[in-house]
């Protein structure tokens, strides 16, 4: 017994000496954090299904800037609105780096906008934002596309005849068709088998990277290549999306009109041709394929998941759904489609949609940032090569910014007179130079789809409001709502 105790004590002392030596050898003033073991870091004491919960708990001890180790990878976690804003907005130039996320690198084959840094990121971001805006993102033209897609979505719900259905693919088909119009220049029939197959792959991808297996792959990629088969299955499925996009690129090459580009792919191909003799260009087929895949996946799953969660919350809180419908009936009525101009006259509806996004907290850890060089921040040094986690969960649940952060409460976005009010801590799309490029499109989609659905239908659950579980099924990279069934009853 004494021998065992001595061995444990010796091991603890060895670990403490190792940590002390590493910090002393680095000569850097790292942020504090929980004691990390060699190779496995803080994994033994971390909530594997919801890492952000552990980070929030640890921050009570170590503060709003802390060092944690996921396996051998050092991470600096930023907690709270003030801390995240200071990093991403006030010191934006230092925090623009994107961390090398192994599974995303596999999916995107090392190219594209989301995982890039340096000149590649600057060129692709500038081009993507300009092109999407030219094709109407956030403008009247895009509003008309969403209104047209709303007609198809409403028709599909009408055809259910008030029978219980899983709304997941009803919503993902509609949302995906909007981004498909921008990227590929076409929408797809809701019964198109290939289209449905691709949407299923996207759903499975997000569920995998939000699972413990997906997170383990990012921590121990070489080991997981040999231990897990699940990621191989997902990657084979992703090949189907690569093939789909490649075929679309070939079609565009055959029909390209340099004087009349129809969509994002056309514009990219024109720029690719213009810069074919530039050895430093980032406009080549690999970046085209990966960026199109970025837009297709992100433009489909995040917004459709938010809509699915919105309907779930409205079923859970029928009095809120009824209040929204009364406001919509008073302002718009039943005989015309909503427009973005209606938003200012629908403050309660707008507040609910914002609160859905805050409460869902779809990407609690944010997409990881990266220290491209040593960064001095709040008296600490974040060494080059450190992954940085500006936790959006800690912003959207900041008790100093929200009156009831753990409760679904549209009053967070209403003043004493019932007018809509902004909150600077509303950052579901992140902030700074790495904020979501599709934010204006997502905002427009959420408003127009939600209002058009509530204008025509009342939503309920076969099990009643109490039968709806709004807690996420998975909570790692993304908060994934549980699957459920609803009844869409015509009004």
Automatic annotation (TrEMBL):
> Which family, according to the similarity comment?
Belongs to the cytochrome P450 family.
Q: Which co-factor is required?
A: heme
> What does the entry give for GO biological process?
aflatoxin metabolic process; organic acid metabolic process; xenobiotic metabolic process
Among the GO molecular function terms of this UniProt record, one is: iron ion binding
The main location is endoplasmic reticulum
What is the source species? Cyprinus carpio (Common carp)
Q: Which UniProt keywords apply?
A: Endoplasmic reticulum, Heme, Iron, Membrane, Metal-binding, Microsome, Monooxygenase, Oxidoreductase, Signal
Q: What InterPro entries would the database entry show?
A: Cyt_P450 (IPR001128), Cyt_P450_CS (IPR017972), Cyt_P450_E_grp-I (IPR002401), Cyt_P450_sf (IPR036396), Cytochrome_P450_fam2 (IPR050182)
Which residues are heme-binding? 436
What subcellular locations does the record give? Endoplasmic reticulum membrane; Microsome membrane
Would you name any one GO CC term? endoplasmic reticulum membrane
Q: What is this protein called?
A: Cytochrome P450, family 2, subfamily Y, polypeptide 3
Gene name on record?
A: LOC109048839
């Amino acid at each position: 017994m004494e021998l065992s105790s001595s061995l444990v004590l010796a091991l603890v002392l060895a670990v403490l000496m190792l940590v002390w030596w590493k910090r002393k050898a680095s000569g850097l003033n790292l942020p504090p954090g929980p004691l990390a073991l060699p190779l496995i870091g803080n994994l033994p004491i971390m909530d594997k299904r919801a890492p952000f919960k552990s980070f929030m708990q640890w921050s009570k001890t170590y503060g709003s800037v802390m060092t944690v180790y996921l396996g051998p990878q050092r991470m600096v976690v930023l907690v709270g609105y003030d801390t995240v804003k200071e990093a991403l907005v006030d010191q934006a130039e230092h925090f623009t780096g994107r961390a090398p996320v192994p599974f995303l690198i596999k999916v995107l084959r090392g190219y594209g906008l989301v995982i890039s840094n340096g000149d590649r990121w600057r060129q692709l971001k500038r081009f993507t934002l300009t092109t999407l805006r030219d094709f109407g993102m956030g403008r009247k033209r895009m509003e008309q596309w969403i209104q047209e897609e709303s007609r198809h979505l409403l028709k599909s719900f009408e055809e259910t005849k008030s029978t219980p259905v899983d709304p997941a693919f009803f919503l993902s088909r509609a949302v995906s068709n909007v981004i498909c119009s921008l990227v590929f220049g076409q929408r797809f029939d809701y019964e198109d088998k290939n289209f449905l197959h691709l949407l299923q792959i996207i759903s499975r991808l997000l569920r995998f990277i939000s699972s413990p297996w997906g997170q383990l792959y990012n921590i121990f990629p070489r080991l997981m290549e040999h231990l897990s088969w699940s990621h191989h299955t997902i990657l084979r499925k992703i090949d189907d999306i690569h093939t789909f996009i490649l075929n679309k690129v070939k079609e565009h090459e055959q029909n390209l009109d340099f004087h009349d580009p129809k969509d994002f792919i056309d514009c990219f191909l024109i720029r690719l041709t213009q810069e074919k003799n530039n050895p430093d260009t980032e406009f080549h087929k690999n970046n085209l394929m990966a960026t199109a895949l970025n837009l297709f996946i992100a433009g489909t799953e995040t917004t459709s998941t938010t809509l699915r969660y919105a309907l779930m919350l409205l079923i859970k809180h029928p009095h809120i759904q009824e209040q929204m419908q009364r406001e919509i009936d008073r302002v718009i009525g039943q005989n015309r489609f909503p427009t973005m101009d209606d938003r200012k006259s629908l403050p309660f509806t707008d507040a609910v949609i914002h609160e859905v996004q805050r409460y869902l907290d779809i990407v609690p850890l944010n997409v990881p940032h990266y220290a491209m060089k040593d960064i001095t921040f709040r008296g600490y040094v974040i060494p080059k090569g450190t992954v940085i986690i500006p936790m959006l969960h800690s912003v959207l649940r900041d008790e100093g910014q929200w009156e009831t952060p753990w409760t679904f409460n549209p009053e967070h976005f209403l003043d004493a007179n019932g007018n809509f009010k902004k909150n600077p801590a509303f950052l579901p799309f992140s902030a700074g130079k790495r904020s979501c490029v599709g934010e204006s499109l997502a905002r427009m989609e959420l408003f127009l789809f939600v209002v058009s659905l509530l204008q025509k239908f009342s939503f309920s659950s076969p099990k009643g409001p109490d039968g709806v579980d709004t807690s996420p099924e998975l909570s790692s990279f993304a908060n994934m709502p549980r699957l459920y069934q609803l009844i869409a009853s015509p009004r």
